[in-house]
Amino acid sequence: MSAKTTFSEISPSEFFYRNRDLAGFSNPSRALYSAVREIVENSLDSCELYRILPEIYVRLSYVDGEEDKPEPKKYELLAVDNGSGIEREQIPKAFGRIFYGSKYRLRQTRGMFGMGGTMAVLYSQITTNRAVEITSSVDGKTAYKFVMLIDIEKNYPSILSEEANDAKGWRGTKVKLQLVGDYFRSSSKINDYFKNTALVTPYANITFVDPNGKMMQFLRNTNTMPEPPKETLPHPHGIDVEAVKRLIKNWKGGTMTKFMVQTFHRVGNKIALDFLSYAGIPPNIDPRELSNEDIVKLTDALHAYDKFLPPDGRCLSPLGEEIFTAGIVKELEPEFYAVEVREPAAYSGYPFIIEVGLAYGGKNNQPGLRLLRFANRIPLLYDEGSDVSFKVLNEEIDFKRYNVPQDAPLSIITHISSTKVPYKTVGKEYIADRPEIEKELRNGMREVLRKLQVYLGRKGSMEKQRRKMNIYSRYMPLIARFSAALVGAKRLPPYNKLIGLDMFQDDDNADKVG
């Protein structure tokens, strides 16, 4: 007699409780970094969406009695921002439910899954069993504070206490939690995260205090902020059968032509009619009358029809040349810099914009090539070798062609803005090598390297001129004295004017025959 198979289901919280490494919480070192990053990203998004100049304070401190213990040990993470705040009824769900948030719309955001902040809370709970404190105010009058845990089996917040206090004019969100971490091993990544974040958010004031009391401050050098991203409609080339079914299910009624125009990105009446004729679907029927076979036929036709306009970049929020330049100058202080903002492009129906920056020499550039990667203004610090930018830079760019010296102090900065960044993992650390993205990265890198080539060429010419001037300045006085003595002149000719030197003008005897 065979054993009976038992089936069961688990909640999203339970799944990530068992598989937290998928979200970047694989060990105490990585988890501490991921928790800081996720909380800060939420803060920046809440400011940028409403064009609020960010003021962000982050503090990591030892929990009492933990300071002298070996790593890993318990830390307290405190983060305060001046963003838009969270409505009272949404606070527990925003931090107490996996896959619950404001990021499930077709719009550019740092996060993609609505789980980053909640994962930090979940990791805190399973390593310290301490409740998280969330305080938020949307109006500057009342601040609501929740002390809560996550019911992992139900994927729902378990509220321990709630109170309302006078916000005293403050608006934003404050998160305080305890977690087991390894700061000794993660400190360099956390410091790099703040430095790189400051590079792509030069309009933000960010303060970080580490467990030893050392404070890092990154002050804004511009008040210009990127335009907030706009929500957009799905493009026909980036949709599947299930998505079409959902769109039809939510359709309120009307013709197939009206459905195409109101549901899809950049589809007008003329293109809608031409497409429906191509797909063999009557333009005047209601989409809700389509059978499953018709929906499959419609979806296949959406992918095959080649007259749809490509997605535009108006729904994206790239850095732009002004902000990108301000960040590079502020954080890298280079001898030379260049920025290239590519035209909007698309992969699988999703729009994206590639921006490439270059910093050569200067205060904060060490000898050798350095790659700094960003996606929707998120610094990507792990798994560099798996990223498409690394592949392009190391396999498709010939630096000799641009006369870049070996071990030159050079930083290449890449940034992709998209409604859907093609990450390879939930942890958001490296980007897949999509051909369209690869092409734009390659062209962007080549463009900034051409600008560097021109600069280095001019610099080389100036060096040659300087060497020539040094030779002239050394021998011209001797030639002048010899010539004057030869013709019996009492004074030297004004040779310093011939070579453009001022070094002899203050010498009282420079124009006299010795």
List key phrases describing it.
514 residues, alpha+beta, Heat Shock Protein 90, Ribosomal Protein S5, domain 2, 3 domains, 13 helices
Q: Would you give an account of this structure?
A:
The chain folds into 3 domains: 207 residues, 2-Layer Sandwich (Heat Shock Protein 90); 69 residues, Helicase, Ruva Protein, domain 3 (Orthogonal Bundle), CATH 1.10.8.50; 145 residues, Ribosomal Protein S5, domain 2 (2-Layer Sandwich). The longest helix has 53 residues. Helix 2 runs antiparallel to helix 4 and helix 11 packs across helix 12. The C terminus is likely disordered. With 514 residues, the chain is an alpha+beta fold. A hairpin with a 2-residue loop joins strand 10 and strand 11.
Q: Would you state the CATH class of the largest domain?
A: Alpha Beta
Named at the architecture level, the CATH assignment of the largest domain is 2-Layer Sandwich
General form = globular
Count the beta strands. Answer: 14
Structural class: alpha+beta
How confident is the prediction overall: mean pLDDT?
Answer: 88
- How is the main sheet built? 8 strands, mixed
Number of helices: 13
Strand order across the biggest sheet? Answer: 5-4-3-6-2-1-7-8
Q: Termini, distance in Å?
A: 120 Å
List the uncertain runs. 501-514
